[in-house]
Design a protein that fits this description.
Cofactor: [4Fe-4S] cluster
Pfam family, one: CCG
Bound molecules: iron/sulfur cluster
Largest sheet: 4 strands, parallel
Protein name: Glycolate oxidase iron-sulfur subunit
Oligomer: single chain
Helix content: 40-55%
Number of domains: 4
Structural class: mainly alpha
Strand content: 5-15%
Number of strands: 8
CATH architecture of the largest domain: 3-Layer(aba) Sandwich
Distance between the termini: 54 Å
Keywords: 4Fe-4S, Electron transport, Iron, Iron-sulfur, Metal-binding, Oxidoreductase, Repeat, Transport
GO molecular function, one term: 4 iron, 4 sulfur cluster binding
CATH class of the largest domain: Alpha Beta
């Protein structure tokens, strides 16, 4: 696709990258068929090719209306189009650069700005999110049933002793923000698995939100701040010999793997960010790389439908890995139709585009529940909470299922102390 960037964007240090991405698109339209929003809305401008065209027109200096922003807002950033594209177009990176420039140019209504500011000021901070969810849990009995279902669980906080770990860790874990509040069982399951394998781990206390929520809401500086804080939290342990950063929420894992790209223009952090991105692993990817063995067992909830999050299959390109691990320990994975399509969660998307998110969830659950599984497994806290609102069976993180396969003593909570290296 031909593109001449307008002179008023020449000062943006990412514009050469945007231009190269635009030129790599040959406008073939293969991506359109696998785009969930195009499938629902049927409008070319609600598919990847149309959105790329809108960004190209804007960056070339053509007049742009708020309609363009609406079409970009409806994009899930699921990256199914990247998996389909034969030309390797880096769509998500283009949208990130395009939206960052388009939003200030067009502006947003005050109600949208307030909604986005609230999300950014609450979700990345567990100390703010937890009390709000606790209050919501108390009042949910008087709410309409469909509203009450949307309030995520808020289990008791994880004990401080389970948050730190070894002083000489081989791997670092990220507790995350929403996951640490709503599904702490995920990281506890990962810790049990690492204890079983006698791998010393640590959750550096000052690491937190990965920055994805802010980045996807076009608050780039805020996102970079979260990334620098995490790098500062992890770096001393990496200098001391930590060999991997295991991120159990696949959405956060996809973000950490892009720290190098995000901080490439920051001379103080570029090299560290590149190294951090190299060390980031989804736990499933890492367990397979390290060739660990697990006992097989006979699970009581044997039939599992696995929902591979977009951040796992499209962003991290890790299709099929988790399925191998679950099958090895004894689960039967049922076939799932349209497994490449997003469930509608997509970070804050389910809150900002509730109608589309609901439609996508209904479609996804009809595929996941078609073979009557005992439970649904997934790899990202956002998908887990979103699907659980309407699912007829439990929705669990796959790490919990793997931890269930470990010897009874560990499952009963008699965890070993993290092994000292
Ligand atoms: S498939 Fe790739 S090259 Fe073809 S229109 Fe879509 S983004 Fe462009
Ligand atoms: S990221 Fe997903 S929703 Fe957005 S254009 Fe690509 S396929 Fe469609």
């Amino acid at each position: 696709m031909q593109c001449e960037i307008a002179p008023n964007f020449h000062n943006d240090e990412d514009m050469a990258e945007a231009e190269a991405i635009l030129r790599s698109c040959v406008h073939c339209g293969f991506c359109t068929a696998t785009c969930p929003t195009y499938q629902i809305l049927g409008d070319e401008l609600d598919g990847p090719r149309g959105r790329i065209y809108l960004i190209k027109e804007f960056l070339a200096g053509a007049p742009t209306s708020s309609e363009s922003l609406t079409h970009l807002d409806r994009c899930l950033l699921c990256r199914a189009c990247e998996t389909t594209c034969p030309s390797g177009v880096r769509y998500a990176r283009l949208v990130e650069i395009g939206r960052r420039n388009l939003e200030p140019h067009l502006g947003r209504p005050a109600s949208e700005r307030l909604q986005r500011a609230l999300l950014r000021s609450i979700i990345p901070y567990p100390q703010r999110l937890r009390p709000l969810l606790q209050i919501a849990q108390c009042v949910k009995v008087v709410l309409r049933e469909d509203w009450a279902r949307q309030i995520p669980d808020c289990p008791a906080p994880t004990a401080a002793s389970e948050l730190e770990g070894s002083k000489q860790p081989r791997v670092l874990l990220l507790a995350g923000c929403v996951q640490s509040v709503s599904t702490p069982a995920t990281n506890l399951a990962l810790q049990k698995i690492l204890d079983y394998l006698q791998i010393p781990w640590r959750v550096p206390a000052t690491a937190g939100c990965c920055g994805a929520l802010s980045l996807h809401l076009s608050a780039e500086e805020e996102a970079l701040g979260f990334m620098r804080r995490n790098i500062d939290a992890w770096w001393p342990w990496i200098e001391q010999g930590a060999q991997a950063i295991l991120v159990s929420a696949s959405g956060c894992g996809a973000m950490v793997k892009e720290y190098g790209q995000a901080l490439q223009h920051d001379p103080a952090y570029a090299e560290k960010a590149r190294r951090i991105a190299e060390l980031a692993r989804d736990p499933g990817e890492w367990l397979l790389e390290e060739k660990f063995e697990f006992p097989s067992f006979a699970p009581s909830q044997r039939k599992v439908a696995f929902h591979s999050p977009c951040s796992l299959q499209h962003a991290q390109r890790l299709s099929g890995k988790i399925e191998i691990l679950l099958q090895r320990v004894g689960y039967d994975l049922v076939p799932v139709a349209d497994a490449h399509l997003c469930c509608g969660s997509a970070g804050s998307y389910s809150l900002l585009q509730p109608d589309l998110a609901k439609e996508l969830r209904e479609r996804k659950l009809s595929c996941l529940e078609a073979k009557a599984p005992d439970c649904i497994a997934t790899a990202n806290v956002g998908c887990q909470l979103h699907l659980q609102q309407e699912a007829g069976v439990p929705v669990r993180h796959w790490l919990e299922l793997l931890a269930d396969a470990l010897p009874e003593t560990l499952r009963a909570g008699e965890r070993q102390s993290p092994t000292q290296a």
